[in-house]
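Lab notes, practical 5.
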Amino acid sequence: MHTRIRNCCSNLNADLHRNNLSGSPNCRCGQTIENAEHYLLQCLQFTTQRIRMFHATRPFHSLSAHALLFGKSSLSDEDNLTIFIAVQNFIKDTGRFT
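Output from the prediction step:
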């Protein structure tokens, strides 16, 4: 799922809408378009899971959606792996794609 989000081919509403598979790109939370940035950093439905992800990635803040999905070239492979695992846990814990 991580790769699908990176490639804009996930079941996020913005991706589905872009590929003509959904009538609306809006999030179920009613705030805005459900894209990767909204899902990872803003959606009110996943605040608890996001806080856990932020705690796991605290040494690397501030992190953008791009850094969460692709890592940061300024970090070591080990540090990027920590970010990757935190994002994987976030994706799993939200249950958004089940």
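Observations recorded by the TA: The CA atoms of residues 14 and 33 lie 6 Å apart. The longest helix spans residues 77-94.
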